[in-house]
Design goal:
This protein has 143 residues and is α+β, with helices and mostly antiparallel strands. It has eight helices and five strands. It is found in: Endoplasmic reticulum membrane; Microsome membrane.
Length: 143
């Protein structure tokens, strides 16, 4: 793993300047990534990354529910981190920047967990299947 002291410190203004196809930087969890070379390889297409170019993509990155491999792959593109003065501003929330992701995840309500994209992709089809099955059984018994 790269030691933070070996990384370059950037401001949000510096990152914002890299918002096009020739230079695409994004911020995830106050880390700065140069994803220019990854644009053509991104499974969701380059436009997904270009929409977030030069800005904080933390929420979008986490909302998608990337695999562990995808999260691990981000290390290849890590070029620096946000300076402390700009880190909280770029995070776009009022939470303490020292709060670990594990604590934040554990603090989520059950509604957030149930309706997260991962669970809803499983639960909604399951519920529909159960309703269809029960209707089928009810109709079959009636006739």
């Amino acid at each position: 793993m790269v030691d933070k002291k070996d990384l370059t410190k950037y401001t949000t203004e510096e990152v914002a300047a890299h918002n096009n196809v020739s230079s695409t930087w994004i911020i995830i969890d106050n880390n700065v990534y140069d994803v220019t070379k990854f644009l053509e390889e991104h499974p969701g297409g380059d436009e997904v990354l270009l929409e977030q170019a030069g800005q904080n993509a933390t929420e979008s990155f986490k909302d998608v529910g990337h695999s562990r491999d995808a999260v691990e792959m981000t290390k290849e593109y890590l070029i620096g981190y946000l300076s402390d003065a700009n880190a909280t501003e770029a995070a776009g929330d009022k939470t303490n920047s020292s709060t670990s992701p594990t604590i934040a995840k554990n603090g989520a309500s059950w509604v957030d967990i149930i309706f997260s994209s991962t669970w809803s992709n499983f639960l909604i089809p399951l519920a529909i299947s159960a309703v269809v099955y029960l209707l089928y059984r009810g109709i079959k018994t009636a006739f």
